[in-house]
Here is the input.
Amino acid sequence: MLSAKSLFQEILDDDESFRLFCSIAASGESQGGWENGRIAALVPAGERDLAPKVARHGADEDKHGRIFHALMKKRGLQPVDVPPETDYTMLLEKHGIGLAHQQLKADEPLTVRDIVTYLAHSRVTEQRASEQMDLLRKYFADDPGIGRAVKMISADEDNHLAYCHEELLRFAYAGHGRDIQRILRECALEEIRVYRDVSLAVMDRMGHILRWPKLKAALLAAGIHAIYAYERLVGWRRMVSLEMPERRNALGGPATSALEFA
Here is the structure.
């Protein structure tokens, strides 16, 4: 039967597909770590209390990148170059989601509007990350090879999402609510399109590695298009709602270590 669990299991069981999966994940997490690190350094003077949380976000992303590299190392695998069409993080930046890298490489302080934009974009992408890791945790939390990593990353992604909700609500109460809702909607609609394209590209690569029959590849592609159609119609709304999280100040402490995966 073609199911999410069987699909992930097939990818994890093969060294080449596992290497590609981890390489793509590690690259995206490392890029997110750099972006958050630069944002933390450029937070405007009036929002300096936010800087340690942004830095913690970046440290978590860096940690996730190291974890994916460690998972490959445990199996004697080296990372591969990430095909451009599968690079979710860079494609998001190319399509205007997130602050431009040219801006982050400069030394000019960000504006409050920039911070609101960063948080709104993060709220959308962290929704995706939280859902994906929740799915992996559902199926592989007890897996001896990746279970600990999945649980740690999943917990971090949940914290990142909670942090985005709390901080965006703070800015909404301060008068930025209309801008936040506009940015969230624009970002969500763009993200689901990028996610569709990346998913198709990743599945195409996996299909070649695992020698999937044409019917299986076609069914998977049809499923990806169906998910996109649903998200384009109504599913995007889950990415734009805001509610105060149960866990407050989710990024208020230091990042946990990735040493156990080394």
